[in-house]
Amino acid sequence: MYELTDSDLEILEAIKNVVDGIAAMWGEHTEVLLHSLDTNNPSVIKIQNGHITGRDVGAPITNIAIEKLNQGKDVSEAYITRSPDGKTLRSVTTVIRNRYNQPIGLLCINSNLDAPFQSLVRSLIPEYTAAPANVTNELFARSNEEMLLQTIEGVQTEVLEDPTIPPSKRSREIVEKLYEQGLFELKDSAQIAAKGLDISIHTIYRHLRMLKGTEAC
Question: For a disulfide at 29, which of 8, 115, 133, 145, Cβ 3.0-4.6 Å?
Answer without folding.
Answer: 115
